[in-house]
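Service request form, structural biology core

Requester: graduate student, group of Dr. S.
Request type: structure prediction, single chain
Budget code: on file
Notes: please return the result as structure tokens.

Sequence provided:
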Amino acid sequence: MLEKIKEAHEYIQSQTSVKPTVGIILGTGLGGLVKEIEIVDEIEYKDIPHFPLSTVQSHSGKLIFGNLGGKSVVAMQGRFHFYEGYTMQECTFPVRVMKFLGIERLFVSNASGGVNPDYEIGEIMILNDHINLFPAHPLIGKNIDELGPRFPDMSQPYDHSMIALAETIAGENNIKVSTGVYAGLTGPTLETPAEYKYVRVIGADTVGMSTVPEVIVARHMGIPCFAISIITDLGVPGHIQEVSVEDVIAVANAKEPSMTIIMRELISRV
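Core staff response, request fulfilled:
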């Protein structure tokens, strides 16, 4: 894997002069943050050696290089999911490459289903922890010491200082935010009522199909992480309704401007 990472890294370096210090992964319906980036270069995933291709509606397939909030950034416009048939190592490969490109912090967004009864559709939740319910793990296999330790610590998966600063920024802009725990499941089905109940019982506030593997790999490499989620549907008894991907995207699009303010300001201040 190390050779593949280096080959992808070398190709990207040959295509852009940007030296990013910030990495961004944009979730379902949340690609609008790209509009805030002063774009210098774009590279299609299909052109990057060993990169997977995004197969999900609403996920573009390119790396965006440019400037945001006074920082040099690389943004993934379209992520990869376990349910697409990729291995965990393939899903998280771009995070490895971003580390080699020089990122010092990772910012992640996603859309998710709320199981906390206090949450509403359109709620913005800052992740302060997660529960890994995926059947595979991105660090299984021989450890590559050049990437990180065999047994990485996960006592702070999401950076406490960035969470506090994001809450301050939200308050300054009159944006309501919550903090909570995200449970990661494979999908691609949405959860049954019993599964929603299970996720809530074990301590989660929301559930989704991404983020956890990417954060695990980032923390393996010592990258501080910040993640934010838009609650696009509810898995709360009495509020569970049939949901389509179009419904999810519509809610994400509606709340995206608020999320964008938090992400842009946070990136500029860290």
